[in-house]
Amino acid sequence: MSEAIRVEGLVKRYGSFTALEGVSFGVEEGEIFGILGPNGAGKTTTLEIIEGLQRPSEGRVTVLGNDVLKEAKKIKARIGVQLQSSAYFNYLSLLEILRLLGSFYPHSMQPEELLEVVGLSDKGKNRVDQLSIGQRQRFTVAASLVNDPELVILDEPTTGLDPQARRNLWDLIREIHSRKVTVVLTSHYMEEAEALCQRLAIMDHGRIVAIDSPDRLIDRIETTYTVKLVTADPLTSDQQHLLAKSATLQKSEGGSDSAADESGSYVLRLNKTPEALNATIDRIVRSGITLKHLEILPATLEDVFLDLTGNELRD
Fold first, then answer.
1. Contact (CB, 8 A) for 180 and 29
2. pLDDT for the residue 273
3. Quick check: 84 pLDDT over 90?
4. Which tens digit of pLDDT belongs to each residue from 227-250?
5. Cβ–Cβ < 8 Å for 193, 43
6. What is residue 22's predicted lDDT score, i.e. its pLDDT?
7. Which one, out of 90, 148, 279, 283, has a CA that is 20 to 30 A from the CA of 73?
8. Is the pLDDT of residue 207 over 70?
């Protein structure tokens, strides 16, 4: 399969600060590719270079077979971009804005069709400031599709949305992808990346620390299960020792440096074997611990991020 994007040795410096340090990856045609990481990881800078909005300090980027430094105009005619924040003429209706944007391209989609794609057919005569936050986000996606692009780049498209609006936008991204459009998106929401992306890159401090499908990234880490428990009383030292035989025992958020704290909340991270999970549950039962709550969770992308970077995911 040919590549829609090829990034090689990308470096971006701002004076003495290096925002990107040797970033390299490829995006295959027709896939949903995600770039995951906290704010400040370098996601937006990477996308802005791909879009031709910034020049790299070092490295080479090709988009749809074109060099971003030499053929930026060709690239911009064939891609759609949804930025983190967008501004529109407030005195124009949605249909009028889309017609205006479409006039900038040699080929464009009909505004009515675009609004239908994003579920805003009944809002065509409205202004942007008359839309809800979720509707505005969908409209920005519609604006990114105005030139019927082969590649769409979405920079944190669901930031600030409530859970229902976020999932509605996920369905919209899947609809765009079903039209054989390559989609690249950034996010700092683990669940979003896992739900949408066929492959993703995890970035931190201007570097890619891993790149693969979500399932394969999860399979690479040693922690497979997380057990969360809330006890009526803090664990005794004997109970802590018993549980720690097959798991890494950690305090809950807001606790002290020891595994036990006043809240009686604990987290156990287990290795790959199901036997370790069975043994840990058996130890909990045999230990005489009085439980208020017990929760067993499979490994997630957040566990991958913690394992690879040693950092909490920072918003």
1. no
2. 66
3. no
4. 888 888 877 888 777 777 655 554
5. no
6. 94
7. 90
8. yes
List, as one string, the DSSP characters of 111-162: HHHHHHHTT-GGGTTSBGGGS-HHHHHHHHHHHHTTT--SEEEEESTTTT--
Confidence band of 16 (pLDDT split at 50, 70, 90): very high
- Rounded to whole angstroms, how far apart are CA atoms 104 and 96? 13
Closest CA to 159 of 43, 76, 54, 253: 43
Query: The tokens of 142 are what?
Result: 């519609």
- CA gap 285, 114 in Å, rounded: 57
pLDDT surpasses 50 at 257: no
Give dist(CA 30, CA 151) in Å, integer: 8
User: What does the alpha-carbon distance between residue 190 and residue 112 come to, in Å, rounded to a whole number?
Assistant: 34
The pair of structure tokens assigned to 170 is 């996920």
Alpha helix ranges (H) inside the chain: 43-50, 72-78, 94-102, 111-117, 133-144, 163-178, 190-196, 214-220, 237-243, 274-286, 301-309
**Helix 133-144 / helix 163-178 crossing angle, nearest 10 deg:** 20
Copy the structure tokens of residue 26. Answer: 């490829």
Q: Which of 15-19, 129-133, 279-283 has the lowest mean pLDDT?
A: 279-283
